[in-house]
Amino acid sequence: MRRAHFLQASAGAMAVAALPQLGTRALASDTIDYTLTAGPVAFSPVSGIDFAGVGFNGAIPGPVLRARFGQRVRVAFHNRSKIATTVHWHGMIIPNDMDGVAGITQPAVPPGGDFLYEFAPNPPGTRWYHDHAGQMGSVLGMFGMFIVEDPHDEPADAEFALVFHDVPDMRSVMAALHGTSDAPMVDPMGSPEMMGMRMGDKMGDEAAYIAHCVNGASYPSTKKLAVKVGDRVRLRILNANPSQTRYIRLAGHRLRVTHSDGNPLAQPLEIDALRIGVAERYDAWFEVTKPGAWLLQGLSSDPLVFEQAVVVHTPGMENAPPLGSAQSLEGVDYFTYEKAGGIGTAVDTSGVNLRKELHLGGGAYGSSRWTINGAAWPHTAKILVHRGDRVLVHFTNKTDMDHPMHLHGHTFRVVEINGKPLARPLAKDVSLVPANGGTLTWIFDATSPAGRWLLHCHNEIHMMDGMMTEVDYV
Ligand SMILES: [Cu+2]
C-alpha cells in the first residue's frame, strides 16, 4: 500500500517530470488506488491569461495516472465541480459500466457526488481520461494522460508525458455550437487543412483559443525536459485540444514513431513532425547525439501558438537559446496514416460479416447540426452487433473538415484511406476521416464486453451538435 500511496501523491508532479518506470517490483496482482477530484481551477498558463477552468486535483491537465499492464486500478472520483460529470477512460477495453459515459453507461455524477471506478486497464499503451457528460468538462480542462506500461516495450533512457492543450475562447465555442463562429484559421502553411480550403468554406477552425499550452503552461514557462547525450528518449504525446489538429516538431531531430493511440505500429516510422488529431496519441522517440537545446513545439500560423513549446536540453544548456523550427509544414515530412501503413493492393476483408456505410455531414453555416447518415444524435441509427462479428465501417466525409472519429471500448484497424488500402493497417481508437469527400475504413471485432459503446466525432463541437451513434451488443 505504501507504494500505491506514493504514486497517488506524486502523480501531479510526474505530469511535468521524467517518468520513472514502476519496475518489476509491481506485482500483477496489485491494485493501485488513485483519487480524482473534479473542481474549479483558476488557470493562468502565462501572465495576462486567467481562465475559469474545471480540472482534476486542482490542475489542468489532471495527474498522469500510471499502471503496469495486468494491474488493477481503483479510482475514487469526487465531483466537487458545479457541473454533473463522469470520467471516461479513453482507449480502454473494460466493462461497459466502467466506461464513464453519462446517460449511457452510468448516471452523471452530480455536484457533490462520488463514484468508484475499478478495472484492469487494457490494452497497454498511452491512454487518457476525460469528462464525458456533454457539459463542456473536457473543454474546460477535465483531462489527463493514463499510461499503461507494456512489459514488451523497448526500454527508454528517459520518458516524458506531454499533453498539448489550449485555453478556449468560450465565446467562440458557444458561437461554434450554433455554426456561427468567426474564429480564424490557424493551421500551418502547407498543411492539408490550409490546402483544402476552398472559396466559400467556413473559416475552418470554429473555436478560437487564447493560449496554447504543454502540461499546464505556455512557453517560456513550460517545464524544461532534461536529457543527456546518448539518451534514447520516449515522448508520449496527447492532443487534448477539443477541436484542432496539431503539428508537433522537435527542432534538429527526426522523430521515430512507434505507437499510434498507444498501439504498436507494425513498423516504426521516422518523420520530421507529427500530425496529431483531436484525442490521438503518438509515442515518438529521438536520440540525443550532441549537447544542445531544442524546442519541441506546435506548428501553426497562429502567432499565439509560439507559446506551445518546451525546451529539451542537455546538462548545462538549460539557459542556451534553443533551436526552433519554422512555423510551416512546407517541405516538412510529417506523419500520415498512409506513410505509417504503406499503400497496399487490397483491403483484407476476410471474416467481415457486417458492413456499415457512415456518411458524415452537416456543419452548414448557421446550423447547429453535424450528422451521420443525415441524422443527429439521438436520432442516428445504432450499429447492432453480435459477439464475434467482424465489422467493417466505411466513412465518407461530405464536409469541409476532418473528423476525428472515435469508438469506445474497441481497438479498430484503419485499413483504407481515400481509396488506398493500407498494407499494414493501423491499430487505433480514433482516426481522422479526411475532409472534402474523403473516405476511411475501419475493421473491428465485436469481442469486447457487452454493452453500449459510443461511436462519435471527438471534436467536442461536432459531438455536442449530433455527430454520434453507438455500437450495441445485442
Ligand atoms: Cu467532427
Draw up the topology in text.
Blueprint: H1 2-14, E1 31-43, E2 51-56, E3 65-68, E4 72-79, E5 88-90, E6 114-119, E7 125-130, H2 137-140, E8 143-149, E9 158-168, H3 170-177, H4 192-195, E10 209-214, E11 225-226, E12 232-239, E13 246-250, E14 255-260, E15 263-271, E16 273-276, E17 281-287, E18 293-299, E19 309-313, H5 337-341, E20 354-362, E21 370-372, E22 383-385, E23 390-397, E24 403-407, E25 412-417, E26 420-428, E27 430-433, E28 438-445, E29 452-457, H6 460-464, E30 468-473
Bound molecules: copper (II) ion.
Task: Report a brief summary of the structure.
This protein is mainly beta and 474 residues long. The chain has helices spanning 2-14, 137-140, 170-177, 192-195, 337-341, 460-464; strands at 31-43, 51-56, 65-68, 72-79, 88-90, 114-119, 125-130, 143-149, 158-168, 209-214, 225-226, 232-239, 246-250, 255-260, 263-271, 273-276, 281-287, 293-299, 309-313, 354-362, 370-372, 383-385, 390-397, 403-407, 412-417, 420-428, 430-433, 438-445, 452-457, 468-473.
